[in-house]
Amino acid sequence: MKSTAAAPLFQPCSSARAAIQRLCDHLNEAFESTAPAGDSPLRSSDAAFAQRVRSALAEAIADPGLLDESACKGDAHGYRRHLLAADAHGRYAIAALVWMPGQASPVHAHHTWCGYAVVEGKLTESLYRWDEAGACATACRTQPRAAGAVSVTRAGHAAIHRLANESGRRAVSLHVYGVAGAQIATHVNDLVRVAESGVESSIGAISSGLNRDGQTVAPDVVAQTPVREAALT
Ligand SMILES: [Fe+2]
Questions:
Q1: Number of Cα atoms under 13 Å in the Cβ half of residue 113
Q2: In 129-143, which positions are buried (b, 16+ CB within 10 angstroms) versus exposed (e)?
Q3: How far is the CA of 111 from the centre of ligand 1 (A)?
Q4: How remote is the CA of residue 4 from the centroid of ligand 1, in Å?
Q5: Which of 11, 42, 124, 230 has the most C-beta neighbours closer than 10 Å?
Q6: Per residue in 97-143, pLDDT tens?
Q7: How many domains is the chain built from?
Q8: What is the pLDDT at residue 33?
Q9: Residue 162 Cα to ligand 1 middle (Å)
């Protein structure tokens, strides 16, 4: 498939625009230089492709001009997503997520491959194991993700996580999802039931504020929960 420049979805400054375009170029190369896995287009088990995406994210966040202030604005009601670019062929979408202190995602698996890198501040990633018999997720471990951390995740219940900003200052992360730009809020997250009663009750408390992919539909409801989980990662 011939490379096509992804259309910018907002108006970044020139240095940010150039950095985002370089990231798009690298992602295009990743698609065109690696053979699809058997489950294409999910590419859940395509190690060469995942390594290409990981390298593209690492190089992108090393550029101090990647995100201008317009892409780093937060929201007091829940973490905010800024859609930066979308592939003209619908193969991927790129977003910056801004996490104010105390904000977190729901516990979720993914309908597609995705990757993220921490650009600013520090996130905490909680990892979960899927219990097929119980149809629920159990917490395994928690890992700090400081600026510079890069992760690429496969689709499916083999990779379930939750991201949170447990620090006292803003955090910003860069995400790429294997969906078209128009699907970023509806076809990425796969919300799962959590086994632990405490966490499960927290998820349940916000369920009325989220659609099936964790997209916020009633921010004021989400804001009332003890842990402000919203949107998607
Ligand atoms: Fe995620």
A1: 25
A2: ebeeeeebbebeeee
A3: 10
A4: 26
A5: 230
A6: 999 999 999 999 999 999 999 999 999 999 999 999 999 999 999 99
A7: 1
A8: 84
A9: 7
The Å distance, Cα 201 to ligand 1 centre, comes to 20
CA of 109 to the centre of ligand 1 (A): 7
**Six token digits for residue 204:** 């349940």
Q: Which domain holds residue 92?
A: 4-230
Could you tell me the CATH number of the domain that includes residue 139?
A: 2.60.120.10
Structure tokens at 12: 């970044």
Beta bridge partners of 137: 130, 194
pLDDT at 15: 85
Per-residue pLDDT, 154:
87
pLDDT in tens, 92-109: 999 999 999 999 999 999
Which segment of 35-44, 57-66, 94-103, 112-121 scores lowest on mean pLDDT?
35-44
